[in-house]
Task: inverse folding
């Protein structure tokens, strides 16, 4: 099955019948689907790393790995991606669900034994509260996945353990959206008693792990929930995330065994497979991750399409892939290359900046700048995240080649996220990763008018119209045709500039069992099936 069809098939094939199950089995299955080598062992701390502090602990209003890597394990979703098969969605807090014949009503039936970390029972009211908190956030709260929930028109709770979602149309992305690792269920009573801001500093969920300690600049630690509702889980005593800003130090920490897994570059992966042969495994695969540039159209001259197109033309994407990503990147648009709905490279080559003749692209860039009133280029400013490595430096160099001068201001990821959501920048390079490879989810978070991660604030009504047309299409071939129209037009409007998509290379020490990196990088971090053979 091609992964781009996943949401559609899950909804229309599996979803039209009653789906039964009790979530991932207490006895974990290995990454290849066969018998696990030996029995799982209890105990041990799973040691991870991040380059920066979490901006907060509120899953519902953040979008960065620095917080999700620690926080999601403290919660349960209604449903989730299978920990060992990223193509499958399985029950979590919902024991089963039903989808109506017309696809416009979905009913979830909850487990009755789930309790929050404070001992109170989880009910349908908590699920409704959590979904509504993301769909219609209170004043002052951002909700990056708000638009992904727009097709839900009504949430009903017929009893304490039943949740019914009414939709305004069949919505192929609903199940992937609900399964992604951001959709944790919060305690309605707890949040209402302490206030929405409390969730930025606290974790109060039903998950296999609970908050233990946060030392800013040092570490975030979560510990085993001894009263977890799934018998026998989790196996780990806890998870420790070390905050290590320097990439070289993070790599050294993995090499020396101080952290248990690490995302590797092409050359580092090859070197470690030689030097640590038999001790680590490198998991390679596609990644729903990409590097892009935001141009703030609320500030001149980026409100001029010609300027945005000129900047896109100035970027030598192929040299970025070779020089910065060591060949470990893929040319692509707004959808993941290789997925069912992505434009092929031949189609991309017709769009500004994707053609292989770099000098011709830059001549056209200078012509567009002159036409826009900048024959000699212009000066502007750039924010670069401290976690973005050489991304900003590369963009600065490319801009200089067409006469655009831009000094760089380096900011940590947390403050950078706040500046981005406030549209307080001129140019902002940013590396993204998404939880699910789905047209509706990606566009609804990044490319529509007013969406949470459309940091450049580009608003094009035709993009919205084309988006709604494809989202409402039931026939796959018809939807694919409409997505192609959407992608070609949206890329021509330069909502963001995509430099490349990434490939995943995750080094994992062999004593780590039953942890499989997912393409989305956000959907396997509940850790409840992970164990350490040491």
Result:
């Amino acid at each position: 099955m091609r992964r781009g069809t996943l949401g559609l098939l899950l909804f229309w094939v599996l979803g039209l019948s009653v789906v039964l199950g009790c979530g991932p089995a207490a006895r974990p299955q290995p990454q290849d689907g066969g018998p696990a080598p030996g029995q799982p062992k209890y105990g041990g701390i799973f040691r991870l790393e991040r380059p920066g502090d979490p901006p907060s602990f509120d899953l519902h209003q953040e979008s960065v790995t620095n917080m999700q890597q620690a926080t999601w394990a403290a919660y349960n979703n209604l449903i989730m991606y299978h920990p060992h098969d990223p193509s499958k969605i399985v029950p979590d807090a919902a024991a089963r669900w039903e989808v109506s014949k017309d696809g416009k009503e979905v009913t979830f039936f909850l487990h009755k034994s789930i309790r929050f970390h404070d001992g109170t029972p989880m009910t349908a009211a908590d699920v409704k509260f959590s979904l509504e908190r993301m769909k219609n956030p209170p004043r002052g709260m951002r909700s990056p996945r708000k638009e992904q929930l727009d097709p839900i028109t009504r949430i009903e709770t017929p009893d304490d353990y039943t949740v019914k979602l009414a939709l305004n149309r069949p919505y192929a992305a609903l199940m992937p959206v609900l399964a992604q690792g951001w959709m944790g269920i919060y305690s309605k009573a707890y949040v209402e008693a302490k206030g929405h801001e409390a969730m930025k500093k606290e974790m109060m969920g039903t998950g296999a792990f609970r908050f233990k300690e946060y030392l800013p600049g040092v570490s975030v630690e979560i510990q085993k929930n001894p009263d977890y509702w799934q018998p026998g889980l989790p196996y780990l005593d806890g998870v420790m995330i070390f905050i290590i800003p320097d990439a070289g130090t993070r790599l050294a920490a993995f090499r020396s065994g101080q952290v248990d897994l690490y995302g590797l570059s092409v050359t580092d992966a090859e070197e470690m497979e030689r030097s640590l042969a038999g001790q680590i495994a490198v998991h390679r695969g596609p990644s729903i991750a990409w590097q892009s540039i935001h141009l703030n159209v609320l500030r001149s001259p980026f409100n001029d399409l010609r300027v945005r197109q000129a900047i896109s033309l100035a970027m030598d994407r192929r040299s970025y892939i070779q020089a910065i990503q060591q060949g470990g990147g893929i040319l692509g648009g707004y959808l993941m290359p290789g997925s069912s709905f992505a434009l092929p490279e031949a189609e991309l080559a017709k769009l500004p900046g994707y053609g292989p003749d770099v000098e011709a692209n830059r001549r056209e860039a200078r012509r567009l700048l002159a036409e826009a009133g900048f024959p000699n280029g212009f000066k502007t400013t750039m924010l670069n995240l401290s976690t973005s490595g050489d991304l900003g430096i590369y963009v600065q160099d490319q801009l200089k080649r067409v006469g655009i001068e831009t000094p760089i201001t380096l900011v940590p990821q947390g403050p950078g996220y706040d500046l981005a959501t406030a549209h307080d920048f001129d140019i902002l390079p940013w590396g993204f990763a998404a939880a699910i490879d789905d047209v509706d989810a990606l566009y609804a978070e990044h490319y529509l008018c007013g969406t949470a991660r459309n940091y450049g604030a580009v608003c094009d009504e035709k993009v919205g119209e084309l988006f709604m047309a494809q989202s409402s299409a039931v026939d796959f071939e018809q939807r694919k045709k409409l997505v192609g129209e959407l992608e070609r037009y949206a890329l021509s409007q330069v909502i963001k500039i995509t430099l490349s998509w990434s490939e995943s290379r995750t080094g994992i020490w062999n004593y780590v069992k039953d942890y499989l990196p997912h393409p989305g990088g956000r959907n396997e971090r509940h850790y409840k099936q992970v164990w350490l053979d040491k």
Remarks:
- Residues 1-35 have pLDDT under 50 and may be disordered.
- DSSP finds 16 helices and 21 strands in the chain.
- Residues 476-492 form the longest helix (17 residues).
- The two ends are 36 Å apart (CA to CA).
